[in-house]
Amino acid sequence: MSSSDTDKNIEQAVPAQEGADNAQASQEAARLGRAYHRKSNVRIIVDSCADFAPEVARALGVEIVNFTYVMSGTEYADDLWQTMSAKEFYDRMRAGEVATTSAVTPGHYLEVFERAADEGTPTVYLAFTRGLSSSVDAARQAAEMVRESHPDFEIYVIDNVCPSAAAELLAIEAVHQAANGLTAKELVAWAEEARYYVHGYFTLDSFDALARGGRIPPAAATVGGKLDIKPELSYDTNGALTLRGMCRGRKKALRAILADFKANYLGAEGGDEKLPMAIVSADAEKDARWLADQVRREPGCSDVPIIYSSVGPVIGAHVGPGMVALLFWGKDRRESLSFTDRIARKVRGQ
Question: What keywords appear on the UniProt entry (predicted)?
Answer without folding.
Answer: Lipid-binding
